[in-house]
Design a protein that fits this description.
By secondary structure, this protein is mainly α. It has 16 helices and 6 strands. It has a 3-stranded antiparallel beta sheet. Strands 2-6-3 form a 3-stranded mixed beta sheet. Helix 1 runs parallel beside helix 5 and helix 10 crosses helix 11. The radius of gyration is 53 Å and the shape is elongated. Belongs to the MIEAP family.
């Protein structure tokens, strides 16, 4: 009996049973129904084998006490919860066989757990190696980025050193030119000293003559003149002499000044090889000047702004048209609103930028000094501070300008504030275009103007034989007199300047005394076909329309 109990303890069946239960619990929500059932049956089989061994040990313990050994304990503790036919005989399987089966199952479970642990360890090692590889790759990327930054710094440093060298050379040239100019002025002054002495002697002679004339005039009452006419003629002759002297003096001085200026021009022309001295004083911005058309900031910002202008036409404009279509089904009026927003945005932005530039120039003029001109300093400040503007105020100005426009309209309870996102983007774009050294602008456009192929393209619903523009869809972007991006316009026959604005007041819209203008009645049928009918036109009865025909 003791040997059987020792073998049972050495096998560790209960520990195997506990491990199986814990493993089943950890994988319960992952396994399928069949897998959980199989696990449960496996635990039950192992438990049954252990119970069989325990009952056999119970039988051996009871036999050691004789016929009635342990009967009281069995009756009091075991029999109450045992059912009928609970005891099962071992059958053909002996105790040693059962214990060996249990030992084999436990050994297999241990091997499986060890294999699983080894697999998990290998996975952890692979993860660690992968993480180390990623870290090394990231370090290499960082080193490559640092190398690129160092190269860029070295290139910039070399370019800045070269720029500083050029600036020093230019500064030395300016100083040399100033020294030569000062030397030439000193020479001219020393040469003009004799002329100044001659002019002083001439002035002394004039003063002496004038003093003599004054003494003569003071003695006029003592001279006996027979007639008053002789006295007046004598005074007139004296005045004429004085005027002649003054004119001669002015002529001599002007001739001297002209001669001096001509000598200076001749000397400057001989030194610099210029026929006209005015060419020497004309300012021409250098390639590194912020006022140059080839400036890097000018070229890069101009390209970005032109691309943004095209994006607004292809994306923001369509989004705003969808928003306007919710409140008004008049396609032509919606297109007019978009075009008016762009025009008013550029007008407001140019006005605000002009005031901003004047304030900047006035503030910099107090402290400006150096080789750069004042205009270059102002443009450099503007390039560095392009965001110093009041966007909400400018958006409000654009909305107020749209409310004053008599060619566009919205329903009575709707405001132009529904287009505020598009207005904000248009104002930003207009301000940045105005802040360039060579600004970009939209071309001036009016209804019923002659269609210009160099500035606009016709829309798909235009009449291609019509020479006049009915309305504009998108403005033309220009730089001075050069067209950068073409706009879009609608050409129609019979296009006119006048476009009646519908009333935004409900009282005026429903008034029976409101009359239609002849121009609104005489619109061609093709124009009605190209536009979706508005609710106001659908609401006019045939009897009312015949009143004005």
């Amino acid at each position: 009996m003791a040997d059987s109990l020792r073998r049972l303890v050495n096998i560790g069946s209960f520990s195997v049973l506990q491990e199986k239960l814990e493993k089943w619990l950890s994988d319960y929500y992952i396994n399928t129904c069949d897998q959980n059932t199989a696990r449960c049956c496996e635990v039950i089989e192992l438990n049954a084998k252990v119970q069989g061994q325990l009952f056999k040990l119970l039988s051996l313990c009871a036999q050691e006490g004789g016929m009635y050994g342990g009967a009281n304990i069995i009756k009091s503790r075991l029999l109450p919860w045992l059912g009928q036919n609970f005891f099962t005989s071992g059958g053909a399987v002996t105790a040693d066989t059962s214990l060996s089966v249990l030992a084999e199952a436990a050994a297999k479970d241990r091997e499986l757990s060890e294999l699983q642990e080894m697999y998990e360890k290998s996975l952890d090692e692979l993860d660690i190696e992968l993480q180390n590889t990623r870290t090394e790759n990231q370090d290499l990327k960082d080193e490559l980025q640092e190398t690129k930054l160092e190269l860029n710094r070295s290139v910039r440093a070399s370019s800045s050193d070269k720029m500083f060298t050029e600036l020093e050379v230019n500064e030395l040239k300016r100083k040399l030119a100033a020294a030569e100019e000062e030397n030439r002025l000193l020479r001219s002054k020393s040469g003009l000293l004799a002329e100044y002495q001659t002019e002083i002697r001439r002035l002394r002679d004039d003063i002496a003559l004038l003093s003599a004339r004054r003494e003569v005039l003071s003695k006029i009452p003592d001279i006996p003149l027979p007639k008053l006419e002789d006295k007046l003629s004598f005074l007139q002759e004296t005045k004429d002499d004085l005027s002649v002297l003054r004119a001669a003096r002015v002529t001599v001085q002007s001739a001297d000044y002209d001669r001096k200026i001509e000598n200076l021009r001749r000397e400057m022309g001989d030194q610099y090889g210029l026929d006209d001295l005015s060419l020497y004083y004309r300012y021409v911005p250098g390639p590194t000047s912020p006022l140059s058309i080839e400036d890097t900031i000018q070229r890069i910002r101009q390209q970005n702004l032109v691309a943004r202008f095209n994006d607004m036409f292809s994306q923001d404009r369509l989004t705003t048209l969808d928003t306007l279509r919710r409140y008004s089904d008049d396609a032509e009026n919606n297109q007019r609103i978009i075009f008016a927003i762009m025009q008013e945005a550029f007008s407001v932005a140019k006005l605000e930028f002009r005031q901003f530039k004047m304030k900047t120039r006035a503030n910099l003029a107090k402290t400006h000094y150096g080789p750069d001109t004042l205009e270059e300093a102002v443009q450099d400040y503007i390039n560095r501070n392009t965001d110093l503007y009041d966007l909400p105020s400018m958006v409000s100005d654009v909305i107020r300008a749209l409310n004053r426009n008599c060619k566009i309209f919205l329903p009575p309870d709707i405001s132009f504030a529904i287009c505020q996102p598009f207005i904000r983007e248009a104002v930003k774009l207009a301000w940045q275009m105005s802040a360039l050294a060579h600004p970009l602008d939209v071309a001036v456009a009016t209804d019923a103007e002659l269609f210009d192929d160099t500035k606009y393209r016709r829309s798909y619903d235009s009449e291609y034989t019509a020479p006049l523009v009915n309305h504009h869809i998108w403005p033309c972007l220009v730089q001075g007199s050069r067209t950068l991006v073409k706009g879009e316009a609608v050409t129609r026959r019979g296009a006119s300047l006048g476009t009646p604005r519908r009333s935004r007041s409900p009282a005026r819209a429903t008034s029976p005394f409101r009359s239609l203008s002849p121009r609104a009645v005489s619109v061609s049928p093709s124009r009605f076909r190209s536009r979706s009918p508005s609710p106001l036109r659908r609401g006019i009865s045939p009897t009312r329309r015949t009143r004005f025909t």
